Amino acid sequence: MQAYNFAGLSARDLHVWRGERPVLRGLSVDAAAGDCIHVAGPNGSGKTTLLRVLAGLLTPEQGSVHWNGRPISADREAYSAALSYLGHSDGLKPEFTARENLAFEVGLRRRLDAPAIDAALACVALTESRDQPARSLSAGQRRRLAMARVMLTGVPLWILDEPFTNLDHAGVERLSEVIAEHLDAGGAVLIAAHQTPAIPRHAARRLEIG
Amino acid sequence: MQAYNFAGLSARDLHVWRGERPVLRGLSVDAAAGDCIHVAGPNGSGKTTLLRVLAGLLTPEQGSVHWNGRPISADREAYSAALSYLGHSDGLKPEFTARENLAFEVGLRRRLDAPAIDAALACVALTESRDQPARSLSAGQRRRLAMARVMLTGVPLWILDEPFTNLDHAGVERLSEVIAEHLDAGGAVLIAAHQTPAIPRHAARRLEIG
Amino acid sequence: MDRTGTADAIWLMYRRDLLLAFRHWDQVAQPVVFFAMVTTLFPLALSPELGELRQLAGGVLWVAALLAALLGLEFLFRADHADGTLEQILLSGQPLALLAIAKGVAHWTICGLPLVLVSPLLAIGLGVPMEALCTVMLSLALGTGILSALGAIGAALTLGLRRGSMLISLLVLPLAMPALIFGARAIDMAIYGDVARGPLLLLAAMLVLALTLAPVAVAAALRISAE
Amino acid sequence: MDRTGTADAIWLMYRRDLLLAFRHWDQVAQPVVFFAMVTTLFPLALSPELGELRQLAGGVLWVAALLAALLGLEFLFRADHADGTLEQILLSGQPLALLAIAKGVAHWTICGLPLVLVSPLLAIGLGVPMEALCTVMLSLALGTGILSALGAIGAALTLGLRRGSMLISLLVLPLAMPALIFGARAIDMAIYGDVARGPLLLLAAMLVLALTLAPVAVAAALRISAE
Amino acid sequence: MNWIWLHKFASPPHAYRLAGQLTPWFGWPAFLLIVTGLYGGLVLAPADYQQGDAFRILYVHAPSAWMSMFIYGTMAVAAAIGLIWRIKLAHGVAAASASVGAWFTLLALATGSIWGKPMWGTWWVWDARLTSELIQLFLYAGLIALRASIEDRDRADRAAAVLAIVGVVNLPIIHYSVYWWNTLHQGATITKLGKPSITGDMLWPLLVMMVGFTLYYGAVLMTRLRAEILRRERDASWLRTELAV
Ligand code: HEM
Ligand SMILES: Nc1ncnc2c1ncn2[C@@H]1O[C@H](COP(=O)(O)OP(=O)(O)OP(=O)(O)O)[C@@H](O)[C@H]1O
Ligand SMILES: Nc1ncnc2c1ncn2[C@@H]1O[C@H](COP(=O)(O)OP(=O)(O)OP(=O)(O)O)[C@@H](O)[C@H]1O
Ligand SMILES: [Mg+2]
Ligand SMILES: [Mg+2]
Q: Nearest residue on chain E to B58, judged by CA atoms?
């Protein structure tokens, strides 16, 4: 388990409008090493919007996001390289097999070898369908695969939008354990979810929006 | 509340292969009026596959599905007209507003007027975003809209694949209540879900697969 | 609760597709612009040694129309397939073949009709004499109809596959070649002042055949692709 | 954990796209077959006389190649956009412009190169004399390169829009006109036995220009489309 | 009625064994016939009075051209059977036929244009028959492309079946229209010249070759069929006993 060292993420006074209406008005977040932040709120309150802003996929009308004290807009590449984002969509290539999906998507970020990939797949219990095209995976299997991608990137900051969707009980527990280990290693995690995630050994700080 | 009268759904000894491997081998289901069947099983066990077979979207290698005693292949149209299916995908037109989505998709099945639509939207608490294109709805809002569609069709048989996904607490309760009312009216519901759904006034019969 | 009559359902489906198309009004213009471009493009590419364009007009117009119509085809069902609404249509309990017709006609209204309407302008640009213009429009009207019908089959078969548009072309072009031959021929004859009844009648016959067979094939293909 | 070097990332992206294409070998063949079909359309629509066809050969080959290349373009980014992998690529922390180049080159390898390789056969079918064949290939090689570069911009801009393929054509065709004119001209000159150095050099110049400007434009366009 | 018989015949174990037994009965005669046909055509048959020996390529060309149509027909029928009565074996036949047919079409085109070079002085002319042969090649290409683009075997089968049926309806229209087109632009004269007036001792090798090619197709079909059955019946119990032998 590697230890990360980073000053952390801090967003100040974010204002975001979607269409005609304000979704985020003056919201602030801070995430330091070992922090697990649970973004909660009713449907349509702006969880996804917030996470996309923090991931740098959406630029807020007002307010700023800082990473290690520098605004993320200053060096997009560096910031992107430090975070891993899991959205409502799994972001998998339907025609690639589970293995290939990991090999290529993670390969873009870091060097990794077949054993590492298979280990990650085993960790999310996809070993026997690892050579199946993602299209033919079940909803939960796809979610597991997407999660394996996040794990493999080995970056300090995880931004997960409802990661527990479609997962069965075993899957939820597995994922919680993975998150816990990431936190142990000194990573930071932001989770949007409707149920409070039960992360072993760690208490999630709740951020209520909307 | 209208009362339905139908003999029920019965599937006998279903065998389904996906790709190289058997997913369902010799599975049987029966659903009579007032039945709520909870299809449970780990990820990749075949819940979606089963529901698609029962909805007539997938033809099993072996086995038969009967509706009111007649094989569904005998009269597809009649059977389709009697059921409403909600899959992993919401089945909404991104370009259409919430209202239009209901007007067109439900309109194909039954005559309905604006008030009926607005009532359904109010029931799933989408009133203030009813003129927003589905594309811009949040994940949960989209799920609610899809659920409103199912309610409006007013058919006896509901087949719901993980309907609670992305819903917040209020949403989950609302949906459970809607399902309960459908059962009261003598409808039948099949639900694939990982948590046992808590349906007021009704006990869900559990069907474990995989 | 009273079920929607089949006629109403068809009409609804037709309106739905038109509305969807006009949501992006710019897209409605696209086949026409593409048509215009290819027609203007071609003379640019020809060697000055060549005599006058007129002899080529029929062929150029038809090839351009054929390709313009093909490009639009992919979107006949793909969007519905991607966002899952196709499943809902399959399960709507309405006769699928008829709904398919509705979609096909809607597609023609969006992609085919505009081509027919602008064709006279382009024809004049290619030096087609006035008296031949109505033959031009007529042959293109019949032709685009045939294409929409054949194309619908291709589109339904290639649903959800990568490279849809390319694959559709491969499936549909060979089937469409007879229409091309007669259509282009009809225009040529008109240009040289003969009456083009023969080819036009043949085109009409093909259209009837296509309209009777296509819906069934499309419905079957859709069920297959939705699995 | 060591980050992937930029060079490796580019190479990986290139391999990824090739693999995606070759996942179905037939899909690599598709642009070629389409090219062949469109080329056949013209004799059917115009006239079977090789003498007449020869005069049109340059134009026909180029228009057909242009369209074949265009059709493939849509798939440069759209699939990645639809299944969310594009977001992942944007967030990969690698310089986007370079990744764009990788994708562009991959696209040319899949869609452009095969066209160049089969063009001699089709040229013969259109009655082009043997000694003109290498000019045909050369002009098409340069041309498809230009198209892939220009097309990448169009593809990135039209990302996520319905009817992508058609919109791309509309954006790219005007830009591609000069290439078309000179390319076709080069072939014509070769057919009539002259040396086509002039047009070919101009084509080469255009290619260089496109290759330098495109990547930056594409990167910018991608970021916009992803929001 | 008849489809009950069909089902029985098409029961995988039965078909597997039958195909196995039939293969040699197709294969060897095909081999012998083609050899004799070639010998008869290339050696015994007299040179054509106006084409000399160039015409001998006819003995490969005409039969393969003929096969290209024959196979398409067979394939369409098989596809229809598979689609209507949901008999996977029929789909197997169709799948096996497509590529064989495509190759024969290609062979006809290749030999044809090789022939064309001495005859017409060019590799290709837009003669009606050649053109329709070319379009037929496109039809095959479409079928193969469609099949190959669909991963799920069952879906691929039925999709290809629909296309094959649509195609076979169009085939006559295509042929007719191409001939009409060609005769309009007096291009047809080309084919008139150089068609050998076939005499008896020129004819029999041609017929022998045709029968030989057809049998060869049968043999290929049988072997491809067994492969198809093996793939489709994966873990069927009868296969285990069958292969244990
Ligand atoms: C690419 C070139 C060619 C193609 C695609 C082609 C196509 C065909 C086809 C489809 C047939 C079968 C017709 C039938 O069974 O009724 C055929 C037969 C024949 N072809 Fe060709 N052909 C080509 C070139 C030639 C040439 C250059 C000659 C001679 C000058 C020729 C002479 C014949 C003859 C004699 C037959 C058999 C007798 C008959 O059916 O009339 N073909 N060819
Ligand atoms: N085309 C295919 N090829 C191979 N395997 C497939 C194919 N389609 C589905 N499968 C497999 O079928 C199994 C059942 O899939 P299904 O979607 O029914 O599971 P599920 O119970 O719905 O899972 P989840 O809870 O994740 O939704 C999965 O293991 C999946 O990998
Ligand atoms: N383009 C847009 N135009 C108008 N409103 C929009 C647009 N995009 C998003 N919205 C609105 O912004 C709000 C926030 O959306 P968001 O997806 O962030 O909610 P969320 O908290 O993720 O909800 P969920 O729990 O359902 O995922 C929603 O009410 C949505 O309707
Ligand atoms: Mg959300
Ligand atoms: Mg499922």
A: E155
